[in-house]
Amino acid sequence: MHLPAGFFVKNNVRFFVISSYIPRLHASRSHTKIIARMKIVAFLLIFILHYVSCSNILYVATIASPSLQRWNRALAMGLRDKGHNITMLSHDSEKGPTPKNFTLILLEGIYDILEAKFESNEIREETATKTIKALFKHVGFCCEYDFNTTGFHTLNNYPKKYKFDLIIFDASYGRCFYPLIQRFNNPPAVAVTPYRLPPILSNAFGNHLHTSYTPYYNTEFSTKMSFTERLQNFFYTYVEVMYRKNSFSPKENKIVKDQFGDDVPALRDFERNISLLLANVDFVMDFPMALPPNIIPVGGLHLSPAKALPKDLQKIFDEAKNGVIFFSLGAYLRSDKLTDFQRNNLIETFKQLPQTILWKYEADNLPGLPKNVIIRKSFPQNDILGE
Questions:
Q1: What is the pLDDT of residues 155-206, one digit of tens each?
Q2: Could you give the CA distance from residue 109 to residue 12 in angstroms, rounded to a whole number?
């Protein structure tokens, strides 16, 4: 039985009753406070979860080089491992099952064409200036080719309102995919280069080119250059910068306008809005250079812990009393395509060395091979260098 609030008299004693409903009133107020606190906690949780949510990233890695794509893929997989969703536009197919949160859009077929170009020495030239011209010709060819691939049209046919939170461009030389920024409604963009730091990129991102002590990468100069070498270094560096600006850029912009329309902004305008560049530069291995805050050296990010060598290779290392030299020309320059003069010079040089030579040679046989030279079509390079 609950007593009503108010006064009552019993045995000449006056009593005042507030209410027997007080416990319920207190319980109701406590319940309200708990609900309010839960709402605050829920709001904070939603805010935190939104803050750490994954991003949808487009990675445009259109440089056609398997060795440089290993660097790009390592960065893409690192972002994927952090929980982000990666869409990658690339010439290189996946060797195994496609990882989760990773979509590969393949720009198909270019390697067969490039292999023929390298075999005919079309891109390899004798001088730095000829190499610069041949390189930009190669970049222009790749741009035109890529725009006609099924892979590019797959990406370009994404819904107009499809959202990427970030676009990453391998900007080593070509800029023809920069209009994808406008195509996908102007998300933030970041540039990367696995190709050290080319002068054209260093200059484009506001860095002063210190030609008096930073050698042009396509020469054999050191930091201790003579006056004549400094003049040559200045000449080669600015030939590349000015050739891109005055000769190649008009052609590149025409290729882009043919694909995206005449109203697309100039590529330089897109470049000005990309405020960050990650460069595969490590000053332990590379020449020292001054860098502005928007160029960040991230050299070696593609490296992974070395695995144990196969037993046959481990035996070679164990039995090599004077050490081992690993020789490879990379993904494009094939040793079996060298001239007889070049190949014989290498053989004679290796013959005079006391070390055991592991030579990445793409053919099965090589006449006149010295006893200290072992040839194979492929080696586990990362594991050998980690030995």
A1: 999 999 999 999 999 998 789 999 999 999 999 999 999 988 889 999 999 9
A2: 108
Q: Does residue 325 share a domain with residue 188? A: no
Read off the tokens for 81. Answer: 């491992």
d(CA 77, CA 301): 11
Question: Comparing C-alpha atoms, which of 279, 257, 280, 282 is closest to residue 270?
Answer: 257
State the pLDDT at residue 368. 86
Amino acid at 9: V
The whole domain housing 154 covers: 56-297
Nearest one of 268, 238, 274, 271 to 250, comparing CA atoms: 268
- Locate 266 and state its tokens: 């100039």
Same structural domain, 222 and 326 = no
Evaluate whether residue 4 is within a structural domain.
Answer: no
- When divided into structural domains, the chain yields a total of 3
Q: Is the CB of residue 58 less than 8 Å from the CB of residue 167? A: yes
pLDDT 10s digits, 326-336: 999 877 678 88
